[in-house]
Amino acid sequence: MTKVPHDRNTQERDELLTINEVADILKIPVGTLRKWRTEGNGPEGFRLGKYVRFRHSAVNRFISAREAANQ
Fold this sequence. Notes:
The chain has helices at residues 8-13, 19-26, 30-39, 56-69; strands at residues 16-17, 45-48, 51-55.
């Protein structure tokens, strides 16, 4: 088994976030984030059972891509 080095910064960037937490980060209504997700326009998320989760790093990539598209 390969041992992955423990790096607190990497761990924090890849923290799993709920849809409510992502909506708070983006400062948008949860309904907007749900709509974006169904349309494939929001941050990349995935299901863990019946729950939708987002990696913090995926949310940061989404924000960076939106910033770059508006420059």
